[in-house]
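Reopening: structure tokens for the magnesium ion complex, inputs below.
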Amino acid sequence: MIRTRGLTKDFPVSRSQTVHAVRGIDLDIAPGELVAVLGPNGAGKTTTMRMLTSLVRPTSGTAEVAGFDVVRQPAHVRRHIGYVGQGNGAGHQQRAADELTTQGRIYGMDRAAARRRAGELLEALDLTDLASRKVSELSGGQRRRLDVALGLVHAPELLFLDEPTTGLDPHNRANLWDHVTRLRGEHAMTIVLTTHYLDEADTMAERVVVVDHGRVIADDTPEALKRDLAGDALVLDAATPGDAARLAALVDRLPGARDVVVDGPRVSARVASGATAAVEVVRAADRAHVPVLGARSTTPTLDDVFLALTGRSLREGPGAPDAPTAAADAAA
Ligand SMILES: Nc1ncnc2c1ncn2[C@@H]1O[C@H](COP(=O)(O)OP(=O)(O)O)[C@@H](O)[C@H]1O
Ligand SMILES: [Mg+2]
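Re-run output (same inputs, fresh job):
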């Protein structure tokens, strides 16, 4: 369904400065897959998606989408895909149903067919009761469901969703996911979405493509990505940095412990079994008269995967080195 080779996008921002937004992405996505593209702000997710939807012309490399070349056959590509952009600017004063009907007319349906399709989609996305509500009066979650409906008007075989759940509360995120996964089951759609919610990528996607600084740094099932990390994370809280150093020495002696890091009064490490290690360290600390204020272990998350791959946490958010400026974001 999607095949890219060396897909690259540079944005010249001034005479002497170029933003290398996407740096050579190779991607193969089969029909029916549900793929989450995960990465921090500025990683190049939106730019990649806009190249795949033929909205942005690649600087170099190739991309075939639904069997068509994005540069040479953009009209064909657009006919086969749905695209729901990051924070879509759907017309404010239109009524929800009219918005959908208009979209259908854009895709060449006659009025009756467009109305019928609008009705189906309102039903499918739980919006029937809101059909005559103005778009500007919808809540964030309802608005996002309408965005998804707009992307589905022409029954595309491939749907792109750029950060569909960003800004939604957990309840609405789950609700949107319910709809998306059900629609996918009913229509055998291929879905590619971007997200920076780790838990979402972890629980919802069958395949996660992790991007950072315009490159794919991992591509696998969430389970396999976490399995590669082998082991649990162990975190211990000491009273002082000095005590933390002494605890770290004890952790170091555990069989199989690695990546022992002291950060202020906190010690973290990777161990085979977090529960066993926690008990052993607390006992050893007791014998050595080093107080332990807290001990916990966690099985790996996708954030640990990202941390292991990049040395940074995805949760750092706005502090990430390549965070786009507001201006660049608006331009994107
Ligand atoms: N039109 C543009 N002009 C200049 N820089 C851009 C433009 N669009 C995106 N960028 C830059 O490209 C990088 C990737 O942006 P983007 O693809 O929006 O990332 P993401 O969607 O992962 O947050 C960022 O550094 C961003 O500032
Ligand atoms: Mg984006």
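The two ends are 25 Å apart (CA to CA). Residues 170-187 form the longest helix (18 residues). Marking as resolved unless the reporter disagrees.
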